[in-house]
Design goal:
The complex is a heterodimer.
Chain A (H helix, E strand, L loop, with lengths): L3 H15 L8 E6 L2 H6 L1 H14 L4 E6 L11 E5 L4 E4 L4 H14 L8 H8 L1
Parallel strand pairs in A: 1-2
Antiparallel strand pairs in A: 1-3, 3-4
Chain B lengths: L3 E6 L2 H5 L2 H14 L6 E6 L11 E4 L3 E3 L7 H11 L10 E2 L6 E2 L6 H4 L17 H6 L4 H9 L2 H11 L11 H10 L6 E6 L8 H8 L1 H15 L3 E7 L3 H16 L15 E7 L8 H8 L23 E5 H13 L1 H5 L9 E8 L5 E6 L4 H8 L9 E6 L5 E4 L9 H6 L8 E6 L4 H15 L5 H18 L5 H17 L3 H4 L3 H9 L1 H10 L13 E3 L9 H5 L5 E2 L8 E2 L9 H5 L5 E3 L1
Parallel strand pairs in B: 1-2, 7-8, 7-10, 8-9, 11-15
Antiparallel strand pairs in B: 1-3, 3-4, 5-6, 11-12, 13-14, 13-15, 16-19, 17-18
Helix pairs in contact in B: 6-10, 6-13, 7-8, 7-10, 9-10, 9-11, 10-13, 17-18, 17-21, 18-19, 21-22
Classes of the chains: A alpha+beta, B alpha/beta.
Amino acid sequence: MKSLEELKKLKETAGKEMELRDSNKRYRVLVGMGTCGIAAGARPVLNRLVEEAAKHDYPCVVSQTGCIGLCKYEPIVEVFDREGDKTTYVYVDAEKAAAIFDSHILHNKVAEEYTLDAEERKGK
Amino acid sequence: MERINVLICAGTGCSSSNSALIYDKFQEVLIKYGLQDEVKVVKTGCFGLCQKGPIVAVHPDGIYYSHVKVDDVETIVSEHLYKGRVVKSLELSDIDYKTQEKIVDIASSPFYAKQKRIALRNCGVINPENINEYIARDGYMALGMVLQSYTPLQVIETIEKSGLRGRGGGGFPTGRKWRFAAQEEADEKYVICNADEGDPGAFMDRSILEGDPHAVLEAMAIAAYAIGAHKGYIYIRAEYPIAVGRLRIAISQARELGLLGDNILGSGFNFDIEIRLGAGAFVCGEETALIASIEGKRGNPVPKPPFPAKSGVWGKPTIINNVETLANVAQIILNGDDWFASIGTEKSKGTKVFALGGKISNTGLVEIPMGTTLREVIYDIGGGCPNGKRFKAVQTGGPSGGCLTENDLDVPIDYDNLIERGSMMGSGGMIVLDEDNCMVDVARFYLEFIVDESCGKCTPCRVGTKRLLEMLTKICKGEGTMELLNEMEELCYHIKNNSLCGLGQSAANPVLSTLKNFREEYLAHIVDKKCPAHVCKSLLTYKIDPEKCRKCSLCARNCPVGAISGVAGQTVFSIDTEKCIKCGACFNNCRFDAISRV
């Protein structure tokens, strides 16, 4: 390296690789990965969410969790904000996951149509 | 696509409990579960919780596992990494010593919450063998800033204003040291990093070099720019192989990126670093002896002045800074001198790393702001003495330091307070002693160390410490007299006042400080011929209480010298004190509390 600018550039690219180690983010996205979740197709959902997160420099933590207890609604994705408020998305697939990510994580807007509430209303 | 980072402590503590095998096992099991592309396993530096090692951290979940064994790896992978279920049985937890409640959120536990990590900021966070991870955490940014927009004098002023003082023992203001060397006219000057950490129980310098070697290299380059040097030495003992290995890797990576060598970052400034291995002699931590050793001579100290800032290695102006001191430098440049000066007490700024050891629940490495009380360090962070034993004293400052007692627990820790109380900061070893430690024996232990480590150049240290040890041994054996005690005290002052270097001048401190605080224990040994802590074997007798003895014969079966006689189930047992070697095997094995030590 021949200048401070080059060092700064390297810092930026190197920094992205370490973003994963920061667990203090605005949102925490959890994918239900119990047997029920995996059987219903949670793995592609998780993979898609991780890809999206990486593409946008990890604005959120993407993690997995066990069975949430609503097996019939799997794959389930839960989004927690810093205050601990939870939004539950159900019957998620890779496409819906990308839409949820775009709306909720990037634009702070709950993707209403995929939530548990919306699904329950539909049922009635 | 990566979604999980697994960080495994690869410091000396966790390495000695097989963290390298755990790393290999992770790689193997991840492939088995097809997770090798999703999970990155990283070797990192010390997390500080050595007592609970090996430590494995899983991010971004922020979950820490303790006491991990090779056999646990598959469980962690299959449960946590594959199914997302945290393995509760392995999760690191802490017990609040006040409420006895279990704390799982380790960041908010007293152990971490009371700490402030500046020198250790990257330890346990980055991979020390990857320069990019250091750079990602603002690494070499301070050097870049300094080279681009600071004059050497501005660097010195910043360090002076920050109030940074040497962390290796003496506490000399770092900025002033740099200024002295900068003022000297010479064709060449040198920067030395003193990594000859030798105090029994101190391991913070080793951990910094193992966990964040680039922080030290960057600071050395900044120091070199400030004083006008182009060459640096790291003097490190060969008995720190992991630290030496990581330093070698760090130096070659920094050279590759042009952060060491000629024309650093296009500024025209040249600086390079060489490692010099020491043979692990305590006296070589002393500046002049260290310089002699670097020059290839025998590591003997010489009288000061001239100070190294005037005439150091190869007779040229030299600054010598300790590892931990250097680890603060880049942060001071980046965050400003006011930031650093706002932490700590009036005359001691910033933080200090302490190595907690001895009779303490959380053995490990902690970094606290200056001015934290001993009570907070020993109880809140350290978790107090294990097994409900009573705290007796804490030894700080290594063999040159002294003991602090219960009365000193509420003293805010800084350079001046510790000296005022008869101890010193030293390099930061803190050895906690409880009611089972004999203070005379502790003094004797340190004296043994000093006798081994005295270089032999000056008589007061060479002969004086040897005689002092003999006197202490006599007292421990019950052969002490009051005259001997007086002579011993006199000899202490003689050694202190007449020795050539710091080693001899402080050699008597362990004796003087225990005499000051625990004179009654010395008197018990001399007058009553008793060791109150039941440590000194010559003053102990083991006895079996015939009332309590249940004739089980367990004591006799465990006695290695056949000193206990009796018939199982028929007669009570008794100890032949002539034959007894006072090993304590019977005492430790008796289930009915029938054996006593007096």
